[in-house]
Amino acid sequence: MANHSQFSFQDASSPIMEELLQFHDHALMVALAICSLVLYLLTLMLTEKLTSNTVDAQAIELVWTILPAVVLITLALPSLRILYMMDEINEPDLTLKAIGHQWYWSYEYTDFKDLTFDSYMIPTPDLPLGHFRLLEVDHRVIVPTDSTVRVIVTADDVLHSWAVPSLGVKTDAIPGRLNQTSFLASRPGVYYGQCSEICGANHSFMPIVVESAPLAEFENWSSLLSS
């Protein structure tokens, strides 16, 4: 999760988030190159003496037409690749249904019988020592590590958004519509998120907590909860 005075992204905990961070760095380097070129040209124009030499109009027009096209291609190709990776869901190991309410989340493990629960934020007076205020819930989402999890997202009342930054997941929850996304937690840990769509007075009080655990621990947890 994010730390105090942190300016960068959270540490990536899924392959998709790693790709997003690499594309972010790539786009920043392209922007830095453009800004450096523009600054150099501005400095050159302000410091050099005016001369009567002129550049051939056809040559300069060719340059300022082709160069922006090349820049856009260097940004578009990696972006399209990541978009296809985010939409591609091949044979998920687990399917999770997240339903947004005002103001809590309901979860259904559709691969198991009677494995459903509601997830509410723990109020500050009841918060255990060492847990995060406004981020901890009474029932966490437990998923197995290194397993593809398909998440079906919908809402019961108004618009919500199921978002976990460390996993690179953000999907709108729309009443009467099913949206889906997927993620793969690459290492065990606890990942925090929040509803990212303004959904009413208590919008900031419906956090999301995803815990990635080894497969054996996940099976023990699911058998205890469903029994």
Automatic annotation (TrEMBL):
GO molecular function ontology, one term from the record: copper ion binding
- Segments forming domain Cytochrome oxidase subunit II copper A binding: 91-224
One biological process term from GO is: ATP synthesis coupled electron transport
Recorded topology in the membrane:
Multi-pass membrane protein
Q: Which cofactor does it need?
A: Cu cation
Q: Which SUPFAM superfamilies match?
A: Cupredoxins (SSF49503), Cytochrome c oxidase subunit II-like, transmembrane region (SSF81464)
Residue limits of the Cytochrome oxidase subunit II transmembrane region profile domain? Answer: 1-90
Which compartments is it annotated to reside in? Mitochondrion inner membrane
How is the co-factor bound, per the entry? Binds a copper A center.
Q: By its UniProt entry, which PROSITE patterns does this protein fall under? A: COX2, COX2_CUA, COX2_TM
The record lists the membrane-crossing segments as 27-47, 59-77
Q: Which reaction does it catalyse?
A: 4 Fe(II)-[cytochrome c] + O2 + 8 H(+)(in) = 4 Fe(III)-[cytochrome c] + 2 H2O + 4 H(+)(out)
Top-rank taxon: Eukaryota
What keywords appear on the UniProt entry?
Copper, Electron transport, Magnesium, Membrane, Metal-binding, Mitochondrion, Mitochondrion inner membrane, Respiratory chain, Translocase, Transmembrane, Transmembrane helix, Transport
Among the entry's GO cellular component annotations, what is one? mitochondrial inner membrane
CDD domains attached here? CcO_II_C
The task this protein performs is described as: Component of the cytochrome c oxidase, the last enzyme in the mitochondrial electron transport chain which drives oxidative phosphorylation. The respiratory chain contains 3 multisubunit complexes succinate dehydrogenase (complex II, CII), ubiquinol-cytochrome c oxidoreductase (cytochrome b-c1 complex, complex III, CIII) and cytochrome c oxidase (complex IV, CIV), that cooperate to transfer electrons derived from NADH and succinate to molecular oxygen, creating an electrochemical gradient over the inner membrane that drives transmembrane transport and the ATP synthase.
Task: Give the family this protein belongs to, as stated in its UniProt record.
Answer: Belongs to the cytochrome c oxidase subunit 2 family.
What's the protein name?
Cytochrome c oxidase subunit 2
Species of origin reads Aegithalos concinnus talifuensis
Supply the gene name: COX2
